[in-house]
Each structure stands twice: as C-alpha cells, then as structure tokens.
Amino acid sequence: MNFETVLFYLFAAVTVFAALRVITARNPLHAVLFLVLAFVSSAGIWLLLEAEFLAIALVLVYVGAVMVLFLFVVMMLDINIEQLRKGFWQWLPLGALLAGLIGVQMVWVLGAEDISAGTAAVKHAADYDNTKELGRLIYTDYVYPFELAAVLLLLAMVAAIALTLRQRRDTKRQDIDKQLKVKREDRVRIVSVPSSRQANAAQDVEASTNGHTAD
Amino acid sequence: MMELLQTLQLAGQDLLGAAWLPVWTAVKIMVIILPIMGGVAYYTLAERKVLGFMQVRPGPNRVGYWGLLQPVADGLKLLCKEVIIPTNSNKFLFLAAPVLALTPALAAWAVIPFDDGMILADVNAGLLYLLAMTSLGVYGIIIAGWASNSKYAFLGALRSAAQIVSYELAMGFALVCVLLAAQSMNMGDIVRGQQSDYGLFGWYWLPLFPMLVVYFIAGVAETNRAPFDLAEGESEIVAGFHVEYSGMGFALFFLAEYANMILIAALSSVMFLGGWLNPFHGWPVIGELTDMVPGLFWMLGKMSIFLFLFLWFRATFPRYRYDQLMRLGWKIFIPLTLVWVVVVAAWMQTPYWLW
Description:
The complex is a heterodimer of chains A (215) and B (355). Chain A is mainly α. Helices cover 74% and strands 0% of the residues of chain A. Chain A is elongated and about 110 Å long. Chain B is an all-alpha fold and 355 residues long. Chain B has helices at residues 2-16, 20-54, 70-80, 91-107, 126-136, 138-147, 151-182, 187-192, 209-222, 234-237, 247-272, 286-290, 295-316, 322-349. The two termini of chain B are 34 Å apart. The interface between A and B is medium-sized, with 24 and 27 residues.
C-alpha cells in the first residue's frame, strides 16, 4: 500500500463520515459545516486523480461561495428540529426504497465493463497541465454544450431575479448616485448674520421708525 | 549558498531516506511562516507609528527604543490573558473559529514566488489556488460570529459574509485579466511574462491599471480593513465578530487579518508590479547597476508600497455605509471588470498588445 492509497482511504473515510453526519447532525448549522468538510475531502480525492483544476474549482465555488451563502441562510433560520423529525418512521419505507434504487443504479452503472476498463489510472508526466487540457476540451470539442450550459445558467439567473424583484412604491429608498453627487452648495447656505450688538441696534432703529415705543 | 543547500539536501537524504522530503518541506514552510509572523508583529507596530505620524503624535515609544519591543509586549499580554468562553456558546466551534481564520491565510503563501524559483509549491493552477484559499478565510469569521452566542458578533459575521462574497467576484474577474495577459495561472510564469527590456513599463500595471485598482480595493474589502471594516464597526456593533474573544483567540484573529493584508500586498506586487523583477531592467546605466540587487529585495519593496497604502487608507477614509459598500461591489466593480476582461481579450488579438 503506497502513500497515495493511504491518502485516498483517508479522504474517502472522511468524506463518507462527513456525508453521514450531514444527515444525522441535530443542528442544521453543524450539518452545513459537515457538508463543507465533505466537499473539501472530495476535492482532495480529485487532487489524487490529477484533476487539480476541478479540485480547486470545487473548493473555490462550493466551499468559498455557495456554502457561505448556505451558512448565511441557515444561521438566520429558526428551525424547530422536533417538528422536522415528525413522521420519520412514517416516511422511512419510501426513503429506504428510493435510496436502495439509487444504490442499485450506481452499482449497475459503475460496474459496467466498458466504464471500469477505462478507469484504470493513467499516470501523466510531470508537465501535464490539467487546466490547459480542460480549457482546450471545453472550448473546442465541447464548445456548443458548454455555451448552452452557460446560457441556461444565465437564463436561470435572470429568471430568479425577475421573479423576486418587486418594486414597492411605498418604500423609502436612497439614491446613492444622487447622494454622492451632492455639492457643498446644495447643502450649505452661507448667511451673513449681524453680530448681536449691531442686531440690537438695528432692532431699535426699526422699532422707532415704525412708531412703536417700548412703553 | 546553493552548494550549502545542496550538501544539506544530500546529507539529509542519507540520514533520513524517504522521510527526508516531509522534513525538508516542513523546514521550508517554517522559513516562510516565521518571517510572516515576525512581519505581522512589526506591521502592527508600523501601523501604529504611521497612524501616529499622520495624526501628528509619536505613537508607541515606551517599550524599547522607538517602541520597537511593543509587539512583543502586546503578544505577551495577550498570551497571559484568560480565555473566556461565553455561556451557551458552541464551545468547539468557538475555539475552532480563530484557527479556521488563520489557516487559509498562511496556506495561501505556498504558491507565492519570492524570487525566481524561490517558491514552496510551483503548481500550475497557482492563481486559482490563491483565490480558493483567500475565499476560505470567511469561515473563521462566520463561525466565530455564530458560535459566540452574541447578537453583535452575529451581525458582524453576517455583514462579513455578504461583503466577502460580493467582492470575491470582482477580485476573480481582475485575476482573469491577469491570467489572460500572462496566459498562465502559474505564479512564476505570471512574473516571467512581465519581464522585458523596458523595466517597470513591461509590467501588467500599465495595460491592466483599472484591474490593479479594483483588485487592491477588493483586497482591502476582503481583509475587512478600513474603510471596509463594517464587520467590526465599533460605533454600531461594538467589535463585530470577535467581540466575545479574549486572549489568544483574539490574537489569532488579528494574526489572520494582518497575514491576509501582507498576502494581498504580495499578490498585488506579483501580478501587477512584476514580483521579483528589477524595475529598471534594460534601462541605460541604472539598469546595469541595479541588476545585481537580489529579487527578494524588489519583491519586499513592492510589498511595502501596498502595505503602506493599507495604513494610509485607514488613516484617511471614513467608513463606508453598508449600502454604499454593496453598490461599489456590485454596480461599479463587477461591470467595470467585465468590460475590461473583454477589452483585454480583444486587445490581445491585435498587434498593439505590447506586453
């Protein structure tokens, strides 16, 4: 058993353990953190497969961005675990059936001969660049599926924004552009106010010209 | 120097055999991490001195000459303080959060080239690795905020999460421009791509100037530094995510923050200011005179420019309001970087691309 095999079993064990804890953890936040652990250790397995671009992209996209938003949402949820656990035994048979089906399918597909024959690991030379190879494939052989997937994602994004963007008339909002364009002259008005003694004197003069006296 | 290293290598291999590689790597890691830790300690002192200078006061000057032992005193004080764990907090996560904040900040240094060939892990996807590592630092902050069982800490964590996710996009697009220009994600190759006979005019800051500005500002936001330090805004949420931490836990958050700042400075100099390259290379007279200077010197010099900028920003800018911060990230930086990616990609197809 060489070092790589040891690493593989280590990462695989951590991934399976973390995945199990995702569904058994009582606290939803712990479940999210275990999911992060599962992602990181599967990135480790991908690194062992010399797919460094995919491994780092997994950490970057899923761990660095998606799971942060997950955490963000889960932290703000007020989840009643008791209520969530209700009906566990009622739904167990259906869930077990589905899980069994998925398991059988995976064994079926992964056990097929033409797949397992191709998975014999091919060691690449030290100067093999997984990133370059992937880029070449995506932008030459698979350019149309890739562009289609990109357009689909863009469509989903635009649709999600269009569905949730509702302008309410009664909310008060700040227009930051306007705020930033404010000049000093818009806010400050210089008024020359006469000093108090002069002001008093002026008042007296005004009072006497009006014909009103103090008494 | 090289011969000495080689004899050391051979002696180690004779002595330890297969176990030599991990030992030698650990030595290399130490050679990188210890100066970073020292740099962090003295960067805090430099910060207080620079802020003092800008506010016309002396800054720390009691411990040692010119306050030179101040970081040591601060570290000792924090080490001796009691670690307080708030009631009803999640103890494990509360203690793990500072470690989670510090680890990515140090792990990212593995792919930083200090000189030609002076790099711990010369991986092909170096730039991507860096982006991944810097995006992991936010976990320490979020978990700290949640595990503290405190409203202030929680608000700070939420602010920080939203801020980092927003600025990461602009940062990523700025890096896409760099890898377009360098045609590689290997950090060493990015620097070598900037080598030319025109010295500092061959570096990427010239064609990618808007990206340098965006990248550095996004870096300031990513490290939660003023004017983007809403995650710890003292006036609204006391100290944000680390309000419940004391002693070494608190110190670890600060180590992570400063290590991240030095990292952003190193990255900006590698990607836009030609890393270890001599700024006068190829110039008459001065170029030949300065070519003898080791690359490490240039690298550290360029980093200190950015490190000073961090302090200058803190001393001069008032804190952003949260909606202004989001607007800057989403409505200004992301469109700007998107346009510049297209501009650079098109520009590179023309004969007018000189880099």
